[in-house]
């Protein structure tokens, strides 16, 4: 983006720090807001959160770490003023003044880019590189002051902000300057004190610490506008937005540190508990609404399932009815065809021969209803003529569409080769036959 390319490195760091603290994603809006307050991070953030400025939170200078270095330099300079009154002292001061200024400038630059320069000078430390800023602080504290301290948060500052937002907690931020003269006293008599540890535990604070010499620690330092060390900040939330609630700068007795933090904590914890109660109510309402919606969806699902089964049942019955109707129509059509066929058979049968005309076969045929018919056929008639004769008769109780088979029972023999003559089948001069039913299903099974 063009407007991002026009920013200086320092402005980019302030922009990133503001976004980490506020969670604002609109880059153009954020840049315009910072420009409005001349890139003063603290003023901009307070205006962003509440629309008003708290003068007590405005840093005395925009060059945070540099101011601290210059303040220490001025303190050292005032100590040496008495020596400067002497001519030799003035000469020494004149000689070493450029050197001191150069060293101050170099120290200031190193503070701006501590990690990069340290890597170039000392070489990479792969084990230390894997540690977060908070873990490095814990390692530093325990190696120098022991393991008695509050439970320090090990993640990033941004992760700590998210955790206290989700869990409705407060965050105590400790920005450490290892080179500062008051650091040992602060770590031993404040952070490692029973009073401070108990205060943190009783109020369930999250405690994050970092060194101003670390990249992340330096960015957090910019967020708080810390100018004096040691530094303690209290972060809370209002409507899910992080706010800087209190800052304690410089070495103070532990009782004073606790008192300052506790005053702001008590003021904001009431509102935080109210927000927590509202959130619980919203969550409860959401759960109830979700359960109601789930019950409604389940009811709809059951209704749809019932309607689907009813529709499938109706369609099944409709298909069965249509199939039965088609079968009935087909059956009736075949019955009519069979009746016409019987009439044609009766009309096309050759007349019964006389005994003196030719050699005959006198057959006694028993029909399905128990009646018996005796009829003569020519010996050279094919078995088909006998079948035609039988099928031209009424075969009750057989179904009209039933297929028939002519059999001899003693011994049992079926006569099914309709192209054979009666003489060839051994039915001359006489024989007894029985008409048996053979339905279509039996024929399909045999096939």
Automatic annotation (TrEMBL):
CDD domains: UBX. Gene3D superfamilies: DNA helicase RuvA subunit, C-terminal domain (1.10.8.10), Glutaredoxin (3.40.30.10), Phosphatidylinositol 3-kinase Catalytic Subunit, Chain A, domain 1 (3.10.20.90). This is UBX-domain-containing protein. It holds the Pfam family UBX. It comes from the Eukaryota. SMART domains: UAS, UBX. GO terms for cellular component: endoplasmic reticulum. Residues 67-84 have a biased composition (Low complexity). It comes from Piromyces finnis. The keyword Coiled coil applies. Residues 356-435 form the UBX domain. Keywords: Coiled coil.
């Amino acid at each position: 983006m063009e407007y991002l390319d026009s920013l200086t490195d320092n402005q980019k760091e302030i922009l990133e720090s503001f976004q980490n603290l506020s969670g604002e994603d609109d880059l153009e809006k954020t840049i315009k807001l910072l420009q409005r307050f001349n890139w003063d991070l603290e003023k901009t953030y307070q205006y962003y959160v509440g629309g008003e400025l708290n003068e007590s939170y405005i840093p005395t200078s925009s060059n945070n770490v540099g101011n601290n270095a210059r303040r220490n330099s001025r303190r050292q300079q005032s100590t040496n003023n008495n020596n400067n009154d002497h001519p030799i002292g003035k000469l020494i001061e004149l000689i070493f003044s450029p050197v001191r200024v150069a060293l101050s400038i170099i120290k200031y630059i190193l503070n701006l880019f501590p990690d990069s320069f340290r890597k170039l000078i000392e070489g990479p430390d792969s084990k230390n590189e894997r540690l977060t800023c908070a873990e490095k602080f814990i390692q530093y504290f325990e190696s120098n002051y022991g393991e008695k301290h509050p439970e320090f948060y090990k993640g990033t500052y941004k992760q700590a902000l998210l955790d206290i937002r989700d869990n409705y907690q407060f965050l105590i931020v400790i920005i450490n300057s290892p080179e500062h003269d008051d650091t040992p006293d602060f770590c031993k008599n404040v952070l490692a004190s029973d009073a401070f540890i108990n205060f943190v535990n009783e109020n369930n604070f999250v405690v994050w610490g970092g060194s101003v010499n670390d990249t992340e620690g330096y960015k957090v330092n910019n967020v708080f506008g810390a100018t004096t060390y040691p530094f303690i900040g209290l972060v809370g939330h209002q409507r899910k937005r992080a706010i800087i609630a209190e800052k304690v700068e410089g070495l103070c007795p532990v009782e004073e540190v606790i008192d300052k933090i506790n005053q702001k904590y008590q003021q904001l914890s009431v509102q935080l508990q109210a927000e927590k109660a509202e959130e619980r109510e919203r969550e409860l309402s959401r759960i109830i609404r979700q359960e109601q919606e789930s019950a409604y969806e389940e009811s709809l699902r059951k209704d749809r399932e019932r309607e689907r089964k009813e529709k499938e049942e109706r369609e099944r019955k409709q298909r069965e009815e249509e199939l039965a109707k088609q079968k009935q129509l087909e059956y009736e059509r075949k019955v009519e065809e069979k009746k016409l066929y019987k009439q044609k058979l009766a009309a096309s049968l050759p007349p019964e021969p006389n005994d003196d005309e030719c050699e005959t076969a006198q057959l006694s045929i028993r029909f399905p209803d128990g009646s018996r018919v005796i009829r003569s056929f020519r010996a050279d008639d094919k078995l088909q003529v006998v079948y035609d004769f039988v099928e031209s008769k009424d075969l009750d109780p057989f179904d009209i569409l039933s297929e028939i088979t002519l059999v001899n029972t003693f011994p049992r023999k079926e006569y099914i080769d309709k192209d054979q003559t009666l003489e060839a089948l051994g039915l001359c001069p006489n024989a007894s036959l029985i008409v048996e039913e053979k339905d279509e299903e039996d024929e399909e099974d045999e096939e």
